[in-house]
């Protein structure tokens, strides 16, 4: 099952810095096991552009869609057997302690045909 893992900052990171995992080790291990399909850091929120259409009018604005203290700073696409495995992969990521990780499964269409 594929999961999008959003890598986010957090206003209350773990204060115990002993034994924090190394991101390069995490990436190499999960790439080698075929669990990390793709991932990257994102540019700062100042580089974001928000696009909306309202009543047929295009609205484009600079910056992220919401005013929040926590921001998405990266992502990883994971291939895991189930949510439990995805949680274990996320648990070992350094941002699980410095920030937060949101796991979201990719939408899967029903196998049954639609009328």
From TrEMBL:
Gene3D superfamilies: Dimeric alpha+beta barrel (3.30.70.1060). It comes from the Bacteria. Pfam families: YCII. InterPro entries: Dimeric_a/b-barrel (IPR011008), YCII (IPR005545). Residues 21-105 form the YCII-related domain. Belongs to the YciI family. This is YCII-related domain-containing protein. It comes from Nonomuraea zeae.
């Amino acid at each position: 099952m594929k999961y999008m893992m959003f890598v986010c900052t957090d206003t209350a990171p773990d204060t115990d810095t002993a034994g924090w995992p190394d991101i390069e080790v995490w990436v190499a291990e999960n790439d080698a096991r075929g669990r990390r399909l793709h991932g990257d850091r994102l540019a700062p929120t100042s580089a974001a552009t928000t696009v909306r259409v309202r009543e047929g009018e295009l609205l484009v604005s600079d910056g992220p869609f919401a005013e929040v203290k926590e921001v998405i700073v990266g992502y990883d696409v994971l291939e895991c057997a189930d949510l439990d495995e995805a949680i274990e992969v996320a648990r070992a990521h350094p941002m699980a302690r410095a920030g937060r990780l949101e796991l979201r499964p990719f939408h899967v269409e029903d196998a049954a045909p639609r009328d």
